Amino acid sequence: MYDIPKITRPSKDIIAQLKDIGTATVAGSLAHAGFRQPHMIGPVTQYPGKSIVGTALTLQFLPQRPDLFSEGEYADVEKQLHRHVLYQVEEGDVVVVDARGDMTSGVFGDMMSTYFKGRGGAGIVIDGVMRDRPNVDKLDLALWLRGWTPNYHVQTGIYPSAVNVPIACGGVQVIPGDIIMADDDGVVVLPVSMAAKVIEDSKKHAEWEVFSREKLKQGADLRRYYPLHADAQGEYEAWRKLNPIRNSAYPATSVKCSSNHLPGTMRRLRDSSSVARALASITGTAVSSGT
C-alpha cells in the first residue's frame, strides 16, 4: 500500500560507544562544531532514569483537511501510517514523531506500544502526546513526550502523513537514520557524521572530570579545576600516574546504576561515597557494590 523509504543504520559499535555518554556532553560537543541547538524542546522523559541511544525512524503528522483525510480510527487500519512506522522497527530503533506539539491526539496507545516493545524498539520520542497511560506504564518503555490524552490519534485535528522523511521534532531537524540520544536532561539529535567527534570529545573529558570533581568536592577553586586550567595540568598528570587508565572506554557495567547520576561525560557512573568508585569504573578495577 505504501512505499516506505528504508533507512541506513549506524554500526552497532558506534551505538555501543555512545551508550555511556550523557546528552549534556553530546550537546556541548555538537555546539562547538556549529550545531547550536540539537536539543528538542517539548518532549520530556516520562520515566526518570531511562536513557536510550538508537537510530531514528520518523513519522510526520499534518493538520487534517476533509478533502484529503476522512478516515476514522478503524475504517481501514492499513491506511494508518502510524502503524507503518512501527512495521519498520528493528531492535534498538527509536520512533521520532512530529505531532506538531498537539496535546489532543494520542499518537500511540497501549496496543501499538506493546507491538513496539515486542519488536525490540529502544524508545519513542513525540512532540505531542500518547494515550492509555495506565497500561503503557506496565510496559517499561522509554518515552519522551509532551504528555497524555484519552483521545486517539486522528480524533481531533491532525493525521499521520509520511514515514521516514525529514521532520522537525521539538524544533530540531531529524533525518531518518540519525542517532537519537535521550536521558533525564532531554533528547538530542546526533548526525551519524558527528558521532566519531562526540565519542572522541567524551574520552578527552572523562578522565580530567573525575580528577576535577574530586578537587571540587574538597572545596578547591572552581576557576582552577572546571574547566581544568593550564596551571593545574601538572597536578592532573601527577594524579593520573597514580590512577592509570587502562583504556579509553568507561563502561557503565563496572558500577551499578542508581538514580544519582554524575553530570557530563560521567553521568552514567554511580555517584558513590568516594571518587575511588568512579575511578574504578574507568580503570576496570573491581569494586564491591556495597548496596
Q: Your description of this structure?
A:
The protein is an alpha/beta fold. The protein folds into 2 domains: 12-190, Ribonuclease E inhibitor RraA/RraA-like (Glucose Oxidase, domain 1, 3-Layer(bba) Sandwich), CATH 3.50.30.40; 196-283, no CATH class. Helix content is 29%, strand content 18%. Strands 1, 2, 3, 4, 6, 8, 11 and 12 form an 8-stranded mixed β-sheet that branches. A two-stranded parallel ribbon has the order 5-7. A two-stranded antiparallel ribbon has the order 9-10. The protein has 9 helices and 12 strands. Residues 247-291 have low confidence and may be disordered.
In N-to-C order, the SSE pattern is HHEEHEHEEHEEEEEEEHHHH
Largest sheet: 8 strands, mixed
- The CATH topology of the largest domain turns out to be Glucose Oxidase, domain 1
Q: Please report the total strand number as a whole number.
A: 12
CATH class of the largest domain: Alpha Beta
Helices, by number, come to 9
Amino- and carboxy-terminal Cα gap: 54 Å
- Secondary structure: helix percent: 25-40%
Spatial shape: elongated
**How large, in whole angstroms, is the Cα Rg?**
21 Å
Task: Please name the defining characteristics of this protein.
2 domains; two-stranded parallel ribbon; disordered C terminus; Glucose Oxidase, domain 1; 291 residues
